[in-house]
User: What shape does this take?
Amino acid sequence: MISSLILSAMMAFIVLFFVVLMHNFAPAAILYALFLMFLFIRMTFAENKKMGSGVIYRRIFQTVFAVGFCIAFIADLIAERGSMSITSEAMSNSELPFCHIAIPQVLVPLLVTKNIIFPARISGHYASVASMILIWLVCTLTVGRGWCSWICFYGGWEEGFSHVAKKPRIKLLPKNKELREFHFGFMFFIILASLCELACIYCEWFCPFKLVTEFSPVNSIPSLIATIMFVGLFIGLVIVLPILTKKRTQCSSLCPFGAFASLTDRFSIFQMKIDSDKCSGCMKCASICPFSAIDIKTIQEKKGHPEITCAKCGECVSVCPNKAISYEFRFNMKKSSCSCGHHKNPPKTAAVRVFQQLLHPANLFRFAAFSFAVIMSSDFMIKSLNLIAGLFGGRK
Amino acid sequence: MILEAISLGLSTGTYCTMNCAPVLIPFLSGTDKVSYKRNSGLIGAFLGGRLVMYFILGAVFAAIGLLVNEFIDPVLTRRLSVYAYFFCGIALLINSLGLKFPWGCNKDCGCKVPKLRRLGNDWVTAILSGLAVGLHVCPPLWTAMLRSVFGGHGLVGFFYFIFFYIGTLPFFIPLFGIPFIAKRAGSIKRIARVTQFCVSIYFMIFLGLIPMIFE
Amino acid sequence: MIKTILGKIRYSWKMLTTVFTCFFGISLFFICSSIPQNFFAHFLHVDPSYTGGLVCADFINSSDDGSPLLRYTVHEPVTNARWQQSAEYWQLDLEFKDKSPAFKNINISIDEDFELQLTDTEGKLYDNSGNLICNTEYYKLENGSLIKIRIPLKDKRVQKLLGAKQTIHYVLLDDYAPLTIEASMKAHKKSKKEEAKNKAYIQHVKELYAEKQFSLMTQIQIPQGKTTDENLSYFKDKINTNQDDFVSLAYYGFWLAVKGGESSVMKAVALVNEAYTYLDKAAELAAGKEGEIDVLLNRASVSASVPEQFFGKAAVGAEDFMRIVSITENETLKAYSYVMAYECYQKCGKETQAILDLQEAQKMVQYQ
Assistant: This one.
């Protein structure tokens, strides 16, 4: 209880500074700040009461952020260019917004040619190359692939759609391994083809989120083919399949950033841990995992952690009946001479108990991920709230 | 002359990596029998195919004569690349369907489409894809061909081109280490086969058929 | 025993860094992100095929003939460009002094083999016999102050430019005097020596300005050797006595910004925002009056110092410094203002304006 209060107070400072103060105490900023604090407090207290019960608040945040980002981003584009489609002026002036999905596509060509193969601003904009690469670097070192489940403003669409149906109509668990292999195979194809073409081919042909951000104008047959592809991929992989499978199908099968983040997740501080002693093999975690990160073999072979594609969303923690799954520090997962991280005896004083709870990996991870989410989302959400208010105010 | 030819070859390194990597890396990583000897042989077959295509292009240049500057332009080299991608894509797709489809292969017959097994043989694929990749004409290759065909005495020009080709080879050295990685995990093989399948479809349709028909 | 102790020390260190990163590190990163961003921006470049090709010639028109053309840039021809209208093209840029400049025609003769005719909305390329070769891509950007022309290289006649080492451009804009530009067709790298020379010059002008200790334009006595809070209290009293005392308003705003710089990050943003309410009010009241230079110097100095990422005031600062240039007669102050305007324009990405201001400064104050 006390640790939850302390965490909430600390988060309140972050929300106050980045949301309220940075936006000059605007009404929309205050409203959004209250919403964020509500989510964080509820999540923290719920987790304190029952491990894994706060996961619904993560889902709410990510879904709301996806919609808000879409509104604000499209409004920005229309204000800048007059339409959602990419204008020749924006293309020729190298002013396209650079998103995180382009990062794996540009890194290898950057090493070979020393150039960024994407016509974006290098700096001085929220969607510039330098800012997105820096955000990715910091994210890799802190939450790792937790970006996908806590911050990604595209993944929120699937997060929402995957929780529409009560039960999955198609069960993907037996195909988890094939899905992961396809995911990595597709990522390597994207990286190699982008190197060959010196252009981001995922952005050109395969990105389903062009439907909710920006796209090339349909003025030729190839661009018509590309349009049909991205509309089809959005409907199929972002709406229909998540509803049918209750998984984040685009995130776990197509998104090259997701696969890339899985590879670089080894540098992050946190990892999910499966306690083989407590695990009863019920496979509820594997069924619910939206990223196909737990297989039958993962449990049978007692690996001690989910597969490489784990995005640390916490869904498995919420369904495990034996509390066998938890967040853990990566450095605690390795065998060492020091058993410092393992507290066998209960804490002697209340202060020590509070201290231990504060520094619990789950609390630290949630705090870090939520901080990231607050800062990334504030500008977009406040803008979209202002737009919505303006729309209703205008109608009256 | 030797140093000039080699340094010109070295300057194509970036271009070579860009065009050959998507073809060779998944192809070599996904082979059934992983061994350093076989791997080196396949790389040799690919490079041999590439060299043959360069000789064919050189012969065409020599036949056209000095009109080559009138006929060959960036637009035409881009068209040549479209055909290169298309035929390379077909070769890789046949290999993928005939021998290396990522899943569902019966261990006994070992391939999805038995009739493509011979045509999709690894050695045939390596040579055909090498020939196809040789159609990508980059500016340093263009310079090397012009100098070797029109630069002077026939034999000198021939050796100029050979040394230029040798200069392009250092960038293929890392590929000889692929068996080291491929042997470590079976999943790398399957992932490579997925990559090869995707590359073949992409080359054939997106970089081959679509520009061929619509541009 | 030693291993256990070392293990404990290692563990404690890892825990400390983890806790710091999670609680404070992410917030600090976003607050200070402009610093690493600017650092990265020096090393990252967009592939030239997207931006028009590498620059091979850059001509800045500093003549006083009234011509609206400010800058003429020739790029290297591009082949195999992706996502562009033409995969092979040659780009020429024309930058103007004003937004949406009024001109009827621009004729650019290239090597006497080609003639590029530009109107307000389109460009066409002709051969030396007057036959149309092709329409060019024509982009009007930055409120019309920048026109980018891309000549498609599909025609064989134009493709000869690919092999050219140099081209000569005769730029004729309406009735103004024609410009002759010899453009190499190979990109050049910015000389590091030139950049170091500019840096040294800017430092010299700043030192000169600090030495001269400009006397104030007004009668006000500025307190010396006091702390920030004392200065704030001093000027607050002055403002309470006279609400329209714009010099005191400006100094109060200035010292608020200084206090912001000395405070924690959370307070700094609020203080700087508050500072601008005073500075802006002071500038409004001081317009055209004696003491305007003081007010503008205060506001411009604050604008030049605050992080651009958070406040975006570099352009305002540059405009203030240019206004000082137009008011003052003092050469050193003019040079200082030009140099500060150069830095402000660099911050907000207006490179051409920055270069021009530096050139103006160099006319006023020499440096060896």
